[in-house]
Design a protein that fits this description.
The complex is a heterodimer of chains A (233) and B (112). Chain A has helices at 2-5, 9-38, 43-52, 56-67, 72-83, 85-93, 102-110, 114-123, 131-157, 169-181, 185-200, 208-228. Chain A has 2 domains: 2-166, no CATH class; 182-233, no CATH class. Chain A has 12 helices and no strands. Chain A is globular and about 55 Å long. Chain A is mostly helical. In chain A, 74% of the residues lie in helices and 0% in strands. With 112 residues, chain B is an all-alpha fold. Chain B has 2 domains: 1-37; 49-112, no CATH class. In chain B, helix 5 (76-91) packs antiparallel against helix 6 (94-111). Chain B starts with 6 loop residues before the first helix and ends with a helix. The chains are: A mainly alpha (233), B mainly alpha (112). The interface between A and B is large, with 100 and 72 residues.
Chain lengths: 233, 112
């Protein structure tokens, strides 16, 4: 009992804060599991990916490229580019973990996701002492649902007929993530440029259309922001 | 489609992505105190990574460029995807977006 009592209340607050997010995470995880099954991954490989990578959008992109037999370097680079955004999160959340010991910090870093970042930074000032427990409670809940959802998806995915086109759920997830990102003119310009270049480059070898499109999008977005001067935040 | 890569290659990719992703996550958390945050210029560019990458993933999955405009537009994935985009924009909800897109695709494929 004394151990239970030693769990700070902020941990439970974090667990509860994850609740509404799970409506979005569970189907996303399910799609990742189905995509893994469709790409021919075993149950252990699918779970291994969710544990080692634990970043949905990059997992879906990697599975999509693997299923099309893209070169392995392209698969890894594409996933890395997708996860580059977490560099921003890492820098922005780092002051919150200032008082955490080195090893624990390494553990907290593993759980960094779009959601854990956004909620933790929105709730705390960097000086609040208990944010690490809130972050941890939130993150562990999301992590467990992500693994369970992947497992359910990979077991389910193998039994669904191909004509249902379940793989179409993958771009739909990306679409649901994309819309809230287009919050000002520069990011809309970035998205449109990236999309058009990616469609034009769809026939390029090594699936380079995706990387080329993403690169053009970032350049166009940066230039648009600099020239118009809107939407800095 | 099923990948032609063997288990070893698949595991190598999983571990490589995992290591790179963890390095990105840990980067500034590890360095904090020894370096300043992301340089503002890099930070501004990084802000556009999510919309750019996501659009580069979505557009080719919905649009299959054909020689004719009608050929390109009369594609069940594009029609279903456009409908799902409206739902995504209105609700910002993953489940609602998947539901709308899949039901639209099945309606176009099996009922019409």
């Amino acid at each position: 009992m004394s151990r239970l009592r030693s769990v700070p209340p902020e941990f439970s607050t974090g667990v509860r804060a994850a609740g509404p997010l799970l409506l979005g995470i569970a189907p996303f995880a399910l799609v990742a599991g189905v995509a893994a099954a469709n790409a021919g991954l075993s149950v252990v490989q699918a779970l291994g990916m969710s544990v080692f990578v634990f970043a949905g959008a990059s997992q879906l992109a990697a599975l999509d490229l693997l299923s099309r037999d893209a070169p392995l370097a392209v698969v890894v680079v594409t996933a890395a580019v997708i996860n580059l955004r977490m560099l921003m999160y890492s820098a922005s959340i780092a002051p919150h973990f200032r008082n955490v010991a080195g090893r624990a910090r390494a553990l907290l870093a593993y759980f960094l996701t779009d959601m854990s970042y956004a909620l933790t930074v929105a709730r705390f000032s960097p000086d609040a002492p208990e944010q690490r427990w809130y972050y941890l409670g939130l993150s562990i809940t999301v992590w467990l649902v992500w693994q369970a959802g992947t497992l359910a998806g990979v077991l389910l995915g193998a039994g669904v007929p191909a004509s249902w086109g379940l793989e179409f759920a993958v771009p739909l997830v990306f679409l649901a993530l994309l819309m809230p990102e287009m919050k000002d003119r520069s990011s809309v310009a970035a998205a449109v440029a990236a999309g058009v270049v990616a469609v034009a480059g769809a026939g390029l070898p090594l699936n380079l259309g995706l990387l080329l499109g993403a690169l053009c999008g970032v350049v166009v977005g940066t230039v648009a922001e600099a020239s118009v001067g809107v939407g800095a935040e | 489609m099923t990948t032609s890569y063997g288990p070893l290659a698949v595991w190598a990719v999983i571990v490589a992505i995992g290591v790179v992703t963890y390095a990105i996550r840990f980067s500034f958390i590890a360095l904090f105190g020894r370096t300043d945050a992301v340089p503002p210029r890099v930070g501004r560019a990084l802000r556009f990574v999510p919309p750019a990458v996501l659009a580069a993933l979505v557009f080719p999955a919905l649009i299959d460029a054909q020689p004719t405009v009608t050929g390109t537009l009369a594609d069940d994935r594009l029609i279903a995807g456009t409908l799902a985009a409206v739902v995504a924009w209105r609700t910002e909800n993953v489940l609602a977006t998947i539901g709308a897109g899949m039901v639209a695709l099945w309606t176009l494929r099996f009922l019409l």
